[in-house]
């Protein structure tokens, strides 16, 4: 399967470790994985101009790094959302990438999704997980699994093994 991972972290630390473990597990199981580090990309918020649903015929009027993300979304059998928790939700960078999918509606081929979250504290995931569950329901995707890593759990062999396991079972 073709797996597209949106990594919403702007830096190379805890979320990247989860993503690396995911890639390892998925590739070992024979999947093709594309990681898009949307956390470091130049992606503006949706302008709600509706150009995409009119003259644009599915194309966004804004020309930025979403031009890399949209083809990967269109191609994906599995979409993975990976992000640090910022103020009880995913990063602004990944939220912008999620909301800009408005131009194509839903990922056309995708069957499954997964969620990887990193945070400083325990008990901060309700917002992000609630959004993810609503989103996969709306997009008609099967939830393949959620892994969270809070505080000291980040980077532990146990946590990374949990992510590899999720990836290998897709
Ligand atoms: C702007 C900002 C907001 C944050 N908000 C939260 C929060 O609400 N709850 C929490 O537990 N951690 C919060 N954190 C901590 C990060 O979620 C945590 O350090 C995470 O592991 C960072 O992942 P990264 O290494 O991929 O950047 C915040 C960090 C930043 C920079």
What would your notes on this structure say?
The protein has 5 helices and 6 strands. With 170 residues, it is of the alpha/beta class. It has one domain: 3-Layer(aba) Sandwich (Rossmann fold), CATH 3.40.50.360. Strands 1, 2, 3, 4, 5 and 6 form a 6-stranded mixed β-sheet that branches. It binds flavin mononucleotide. The site of flavin mononucleotide has 16 residues, from helix 1, strand 3 and strand 5.
Q: Give the % helix.
A: 25-40%
The SSE order reads EHEHEEHEHEH
> What is the CATH class?
Alpha Beta
Give the mean pLDDT: 97
CATH architecture: 3-Layer(aba) Sandwich
Overall number of strands: 6
Cα shape: globular
What radius of gyration results from the CA coordinates?
15 Å
Helix/strand structural class: alpha/beta
CATH-level-4 superfamily name = Flavodoxin domain
CATH fold name: Rossmann fold
Number of helices: 5
N→C terminal distance: 9 Å
Overall tally of domains: 1
Bound molecules: flavin mononucleotide
Largest sheet descriptor: 6 strands, mixed
- Unreliable stretches, pLDDT < 50, 5 or more residues? none
């Amino acid at each position: 399967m073709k797996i597209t991972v949106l990594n919403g972290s702007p830096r190379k630390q805890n979320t990247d470790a989860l993503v690396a473990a995911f890639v390892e597990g998925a590739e070992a199981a024979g999947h093709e994985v594309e990681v898009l580090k949307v956390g470091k990309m130049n992606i503006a918020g949706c302008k709600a101009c509706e150009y995409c649903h009119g003259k644009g015929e599915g194309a966004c009027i804004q020309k930025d790094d979403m031009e890399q993300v949209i083809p990967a979304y269109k191609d994906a059998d599995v979409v993975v959302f990976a992000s640090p928790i910022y103020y009880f939700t995913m990063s602004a960078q990944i939220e912008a990438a999620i909301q800009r999918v408005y131009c194509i509606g839903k990922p056309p081929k995708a069957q499954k999704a997964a969620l990887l979250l990193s945070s400083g504290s325990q008990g901060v995931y309700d917002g992000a997980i609630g959004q993810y569950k609503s989103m996969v329901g709306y997009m008609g995707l099967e939830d393949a699994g959620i892994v969270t890593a809070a505080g000291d759990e980040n980077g532990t062999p146990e946590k990374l093994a949990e992510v590899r396991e999720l990836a290998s079972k897709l």
